């Protein structure tokens, strides 16, 4: 089986990560790579690590023929993707799409308008999009035409909390997510605030109380709990290139303590190829998932009875973006979910 693939926005970090992973995917054929500002240039000129590969020359999105591809990965800025996909799917209705932007993650049009500041421009597509958290929505993803790849913060935070909310094991009103991400999460565009001298040897919070990923947390946690949930979420920028780490403070319901939460998570993910729940009390480290599609989760009982600390880490460019997108493509195309994603973390 050969899947003809186009990557839109191939010159960004998530786009290049898609290329890195897809060139080793046994069923993938990269037939188109777009990057409007770098159109006409070889991919190896933009990313020299691909110099030994024969890849398509970067082109403009307008030059993409949807009839020539089976699957499109969109690694474009939010608000751009909805317009592009409306056109592409309008020209080819059976096109399969995995969108790495935020454009289709929120099911409620009013929530999208609130968090992104404008009305959605492809409401029909928004209504059919499936939230691409594979471990949670696997069955729906398999039949999807459009998969909305989750954000990196939300993937890190939802995988540990959704099973606990579904089991009624934690208080939905007592969830605090304290998360840190590496610099690559800010993208490749030149920004003064992202200069080495601006971010090295320090750390800071940003988007405090209003980060857009909060809307995804609200949506998916509420779905899992069967009632409205509004967690406290604070993201931080850490002086590292890759990785994301969430420290999540929860309170168990009834007599549920750390050991009970650990058991629920261990059972929920026992058969999952990309999620590892560490022994009770063991703390995960972001360096142990770098470059892989793996997630590590730890549970530590708090010193206060009934409270627990749940820790979760993944590579923001792989499981937090491009790796998860390929995992979703595998599901959509009927391939084994792990195809092309079985690389072990790079350490040290």
Describe the structure.
The chain has 348 residues and is an alpha/beta fold. It has two domains: 3-128, NAD(P)-binding Rossmann-like Domain (Rossmann fold, 3-Layer(aba) Sandwich); 153-316, Dihydrodipicolinate Reductase, domain 2 (2-Layer Sandwich). Helices cover 31% and strands 20% of the residues. It has eleven helices and 14 strands. The strands form two sheets. A seven-stranded parallel sheet has the order 3-2-1-4-5-7-6, with helices on one face. Strand 2, helix 2 and strand 3 (58-59) form a beta-alpha-beta unit. The chain is globular and about 60 Å long. The two termini are 36 Å apart. The model has no long low-confidence stretch (mean pLDDT 95).
């Amino acid at each position: 089986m050969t899947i003809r693939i186009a990557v839109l926005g191939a010159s960004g970090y998530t786009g290049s990560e898609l290329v890195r992973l897809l060139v080793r995917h046994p069923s993938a054929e990269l037939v188109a790579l777009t990057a409007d500002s770098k159109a006409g240039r070889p991919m190896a000129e933009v990313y020299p690590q691909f110099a030994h590969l024969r890849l398509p020359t970067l082109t403009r999105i307008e030059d993409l023929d949807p009839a020539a591809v089976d699957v499109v990965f969109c690694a474009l800025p939010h608000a751009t993707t909805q317009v592009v996909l409306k056109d592409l799917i309008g020209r080819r209705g059976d096109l399969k799409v995995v969108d790495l932007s935020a454009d289709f993650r929120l099911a409620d049009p009013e929530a999208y308008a609130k968090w992104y500041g404008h009305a959605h421009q492809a409401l029909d597509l928004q209504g059919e999009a499936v939230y691409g958290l594979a471990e949670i929505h696997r069955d729906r993803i398999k039949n999807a035409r459009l998969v909305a790849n989750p954000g990196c913060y939300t993937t890190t935070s939802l995988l540990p909390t959704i099973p606990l909310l579904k089991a009624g094991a934690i208080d939905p009103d007592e969830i605090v997510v304290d998360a840190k991400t590496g610099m690559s999460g800010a993208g490749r565009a030149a920004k003064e605030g992202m200069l080495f001298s601006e971010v090295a040897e320090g750390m800071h919070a940003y988007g405090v109380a209003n980060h857009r990923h909060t809307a995804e947390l609200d949506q998916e946690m509420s779905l899992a709990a069967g009632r409205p949930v509004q967690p406290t979420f604070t993201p931080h920028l850490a002086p590292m290139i890759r990785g994301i780490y969430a420290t999540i403070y929860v309170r168990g319901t009834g007599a549920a303590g750390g050991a009970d939460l650990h058991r629920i998570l261990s059972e929920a993910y026992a058969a999952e190829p990309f999620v590892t729940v560490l022994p009770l009390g063991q703390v995960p480290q972001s360096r142990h998932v770098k470059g892989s599609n793996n997630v590590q989760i730890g549970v530590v009982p708090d010193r206060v009875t009934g409270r627990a600390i749940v820790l979760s880490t993944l590579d923001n460019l792989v499981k937090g973006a491009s790796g998860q997108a390929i995992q979703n493509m595998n599901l959509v195309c009927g391939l084994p979910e792990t195809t092309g994603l079985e690389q072990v973390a790079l350490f040290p």
